[in-house]
Amino acid sequence: MAMDAPTFASAAPFPGRIAALVVAYRADDRLATCLAAAAGAADRVFLFQQNRGLDAADDARVDRAVAATGATLLADPANIGLAAAQNRLMDLALAQGADWLLFLDQDSVPRPGLRAAYAAALAAAPPDTGLLAARNVEPDDGPDSPWVVSPDGQRWAVVRRLDGPLLPDLLLAPASGSLVSAEAARACGPLRDDFFIDWVDVEYALRLRRAGFRLVAVRDALVDHRLGAVTHVQAGGRALAITHHAARRRWFQARNALWTWRLHRRAVPALTGWTLRILASTAIKIAVMERGRLPKLAAFAGGLWHGVWQGLPRRPHP
């Protein structure tokens, strides 16, 4: 498929050229809203469509959104996975001169002011910052996702609200809305496409930390993010997110969590306790609160087994 010429239109005041990277899989009409908002935050928008040619209605929705926003479209007739699709977008954007990469899910909509918030944050952030993380806000003022911080890599803590404009020393960051420097992306290499979808962002964030880059959350950088069929249940005074993911996703979540832990546990000891907490809380949520719990628990257990006994994935190189 033909690609646009390698040009970026400069948009002040951010000190550099931002490329927004969006992956579409069975997108609905909200994709156009996502791309339009991305165009307001970035200098160029790059879109990757999974399963191109399998559904005429899906192709038409993507084509309309691309035509309306001027996005650069890449596509594959198969579902190659989130990480592999993002890698293709990263390669193209970096080759065409992007200084920063803005990662967005197809159901993420940057709020007005995202670019300005990131510009202000970058001016105040430490010079070794490689990733700026947005606050992912669910529709109807749902709760923010908590932040996990670890200044020394030995211990971790959960921060549930940002009281100051910046929160440095994140242990990890959500992919959607994250802004990664081209320097960091080149130093750390591609995302792990053998993870396919889950824990891709967690593993990449840990790699950024290990390469000497800091991860900084930005209070005023807001992205509306709708997490599929998620519901919130009050427990212990807090809202628990119940995602109702399919059994196959639960397999990837368990396996990739243990793969990530095996890859980084020695360099980042804080990862051990946090991974155990996530695995335990996920299993409890499935067992107590989700539909179709038995096949999901079986898949989750299978993912744990593979995560322990399968050989570790190859290490990507820059």
From TrEMBL:
The keyword Transcription does not apply. Keywords: Glycosyltransferase, Transferase. GO terms for molecular function: glycosyltransferase activity. It comes from the Bacteria. PANTHER family: GALACTOFURANOSYLTRANSFERASE GLFT2, RHAMNOSYLTRANSFERASE WBBL. Belongs to the glycosyltransferase 2 family. This is Rhamnosyltransferase. It comes from Nitrospirillum viridazoti CBAmc.
